[in-house]
Amino acid sequence: MHLAFQTLLVVSAYFVSTIATPIIWDGRASLNLTNADLDTSTGPFLTVVKGSENASHYSQLLGQSLLPTPLWNGGSNSSEQQEQVVSVSIDNSSVFVPGGSSPQYGFRRTDIIAANNGEHTDLITQMETGKTIFHVSIQQDEQRPLNYSHEYQIVFIEPNDGTHVFEIQLGSPFTNPTGDVPVSDAHSFKVRDHALNVLFTTPFTASVWHNFAVEVDWNALTIAVWYSQDGELLQQVVQTTSNPTASSGPNGQGDFHFTVLKLPLVNPADSPSNQNDVVHYGIQEGATEALLYSGVFVESAADGLSRGFGVVQQL
């Protein structure tokens, strides 16, 4: 067994009271994880997809100032708190420069990637074999709201070809030319498959933890979706459905991101060819915007799906 995976299983023991299935990767930030750890990708997060400032400029651990989703924390008060919320933000410096590539001036993005002390390649294979389940809980940062005239891709698995096995999206989808924005469902989550079909939508209401679980069968190329709010047990909202445009094997595997990735609006002053290059061109306002995350982990489906508070449903 890979040493980092052994360490992960030990860390996961802190949460055995609320999860009974095998944990492959645990991104529920322990109370002893620090912002300095974010700067060095020490612990469960790789934090290099960001702007020019330190990672802790864009991502912060909130300690006991805000309770995480209660599904995995044994209760609803701070004395029982087992993890800390992660704030993920962007501002006008949030321009990522991939190694050997041009700056992504079209985007504003801060991504947190599943890893074990910076190592993510071996973890991809562990997370994306057989049938696995990706959990994430999301809450609004009401002091740093999103601009819903833009599209935000906030949770996804990204293979090397830049597609997404699945994604959770907010805002108004990018169009060229830009249509009337914000669109009517801009304030709703959209869970989309690899072909960008919307499988599930629900309003992104304030002061509520929105809990998601996406089940991926990497052999059959299917997905299913579970959802709840705050301390309600997860309920299946999308039955197992084919995801046939996704690739099988290593070509279909990739890093697991939770993020604030904001797409631009079309700039009429750009050339026609550049107007479709959302990565490098377009309009961004540069305001500080953020989302709050907790309950992020990946489990094997071998013993079922964790619905919260130790309740497991066999699949």
UniProtKB/TrEMBL annotation:
Superkingdom: Eukaryota
Pfam annotation, one family: GH131_N
Signal peptide per UniProt: 1-20
Keywords, in A-Z order: Signal
Coiled-coil residues: none
Keyword Signal (UniProt): yes
Positions of the Glycoside hydrolase 131 catalytic N-terminal domain: 23-304
Name of the protein described by the UniProt record: Glycoside hydrolase 131 catalytic N-terminal domain-containing protein
Species for this entry: Dichomitus squalens
